[in-house]
Design a protein that fits this description.
alpha/beta, Sulfite Reductase Hemoprotein, domain 1, eight-stranded parallel β-barrel, five-stranded mixed β-sheet, 13 helices, about 40% helix
Length: about 400
C-alpha cells in the first residue's frame, strides 16, 4: 500500500546534506489548512492556544475566543467533553474570527458531531479513542468535509509508557514509545487515504519531548505541532516552553506552537511570539531591549522600563526599542535598536541604530521616547501603504 510517509523518509535519507544536527532553516512539510490558516508548507509558524471556559457557555467561550484573537492567537482549540459542548459548536464556529479546533477525548461520536458542526479542525488522541474502526469513522467524516486532524500523542497516555517491571519509561525509551504510537495511528489515517494531518508529541519533561520530535521529523511529511504539556505557572512554564520549543525551532523542526500555562490563555500568546521573535522566525509587535542594571546606573530604571513595556502593548508593528541604564554602553550594546534611551545622572540620550540623536533631562525621557516611537511607527505604516499601492 502506498504511504506518503514512506516516500518522504526515503527522500530525506537520500539527501546527503540532511542531518538532524544540521537541518536547513525549516524542515520540509506538506501544507495543511485549518480554515484559512496554513500550517507547514514553508508558511509562518502558527501560534495557537485553548479556551478555558465551559464550551457549552456560548457567550463566555465566544468572548474568550475573541480575546485570544485580539491578542494575536491564530487558531483556537476548544474542549468538547460532552454533548452540551458539541451542541454549542455551530454557534461558536459561525461567530469566530479565527479557525477553531475541537479537542476530543474518548468519545468518537463527539468528533463526528464536531465535523457536522463545521469545525475547522480536530484534535484527537487515538490512544484513548481506542477502537481503530471508530478512528476510521472520524477520518471518513473529516475527509468528506476537508477537515484536518491533529494526532495528539501525550507521554502520559500511551500504553507503551511502561517498562516490563511497571516503571514509567523515560528519555530515549519514552521517546521511542511516543513515536511508535504516533506512527501506528498515522498509518491508520494513511490507510484511509487521509493526509491532511498534523502531529504532536507532548510531554512535561523536555528530554523525551525533544528526542521524540527529532526521531519523528525525518519519518513523515506532515506538519508538527510543538508544545510542553502541563508546562506550569507563567514564570516556570514560560521558561520550560521556551527551552523545549525553542530547541526544536532552532533546528528547523516545528510548524505551529502552543505555550501551555496555568493562567488565562491570553497570557500564552505573547510568550509564544517572544519565542518566535527571539529566534528571528517571525516579526510581530515590538522587541524590547533593556539592561539588567549595575552600579553605573544613575536613573530609576525599573519603573521606566515597566512604563515603556506597558506603552508598547498597543503596538502591532515590528519595532526594536531599547531602554538602557547608562550612557557608557547603552547606544553600543543596543546599537541595532530602531530607537532607544540611555540614562545618565539626571540626563540621558535618545539614539537610533547606535547614533545619538539628542540629549535630554530625565523628566523628558518618557514623553520624548514615546514621541520618537510614534514617529517611527507612522513612517513604517506610510512605507507599508506605499508598497501596497505600487503595482
Amino acid at each position: 500500500m502506498y504511504r506518503i510517509s514512506d516516500c518522504y523518509s526515503e527522500f530525506l535519507l537520500s539527501r546527503k546534506e540532511f542531518s538532524l544536527a544540521n537541518v536547513s532553516k525549516r524542515r520540509t512539510s506538506i501544507p495543511v489548512y485549518v480554515g484559512d490558516v496554513r500550517i507547514g508548507g514553508g508558511g509562518d509558524v502558527v501560534v495557537q492556544s485553548m479556551t478555558t471556559t465551559n464550551t457549552a457557555d456560548v457567550d463566555a467561550t465566544r468572548a474568550q475566543i475573541q480575546r485570544l484573537a485580539d491578542a494575536g492567537c491564530e487558531i483556537v482549540r476548544i474542549a468538547v467533553p460532552d454533548n452540551n459542548a458539541a451542541q454549542a459548536l455551530p454557534n461558536l464556529v459561525k461567530n469566530s474570527s479565527v479557525p477553531l479546533i475541537a479537542d476530543i477525548h474518548f468519545d468518537y461520536r463527539l468528533a463526528l458531531s464536531a465535523a457536522e458542526a463545521g469545525i475547522h479542525g480536530l484534535r484527537i488522541n487515538p490512544g484513548n479513542i481506542g477502537d481503530p474502526d471508530r478512528v476510521k469513522q472520524v477520518v471518513k467524516a473529516c475527509k468528506s468535509r476537508d477537515i484536518p486532524i491533529r494526532i495528539g500523542v501525550n507521554a502520559g497516555s500511551i500504553p507503551e509508557n511502561r517498562h516490563p517491571d511497571g516503571r514509567p519509561k523515560q528519555g530515549e525509551a519514552l521517546a521511542e514509545a511516543m513515536v511508535g504510537h504516533a506512527m501506528e495511528h498515522i498509518r491508520i489515517l494513511e490507510g484511509e487515504g487521509f493526509e491532511s494531518m498534523k502531529i504532536s508529541l507532548k510531554a512535561f519533561e523536555i528530554d523525551p519531548m525533544v528526542r521524540a520530535y527529532r526521531m519523528l521529523a525525518p519519518k513523515i511529511p506532515y506538519p508538527l505541532h510543538l508544545g510542553i504539556t502541563e508546562a506550569g505557572t507563567p514564570r516556570a512554564g514560560s521558561i520550560r516552553s521556551a527551552i523545549g520549543i525553542g530547541m526544536l525551532l532552532y533546528e528547523g523542526i516545528g510548524d505551529t506552537i502552543r505555550v501551555s500555562l496555568t493562567a488565562e490563555p491570553e497570557e500564552e500568546i505573547p510568550v509564544a511570539f517572544e519565542i518566535l521573535k527571539s529566534l528571528d522566525i517571525r516579526e510581530k509587535g515590538p522587541v524590547m531591549v533593556s539592561c539588567p542594571s549595575c552600579g553605573r546606573c544613575e536613573i530609576d530604571l525599573f519603573p521606566l522600563v515597566d512604563k515603556v513595556e506597558k506603552y508598547l502593548e498597543h503596538v502591532d508593528e515590528p519595532i526594536k526599542v531599547a531602554v538602557m541604564g547608562c550612557v557608557v554602553n547603552g547606544p553600543g550594546e543596543a546599537k541595532d535598536a530602531d530607537i532607544g534611551l540611555a540614562g545618565g545622572k539626571g540626563r540621558g540620550v535618545i539614539f537610533s541604530k547606535g547614533e545619538i540623536l539628542e540629549t535630554l533631562d530625565e523628566d523628558q525621557f518618557m514623553p520624548r521616547l514615546t514621541a520618537g516611537i510614534e514617529q517611527l511607527l507612522e513612517e513604517k505604516r506610510a512605507a507599508t501603504s506605499t508598497e501596497v499601492l505600487e503595482p
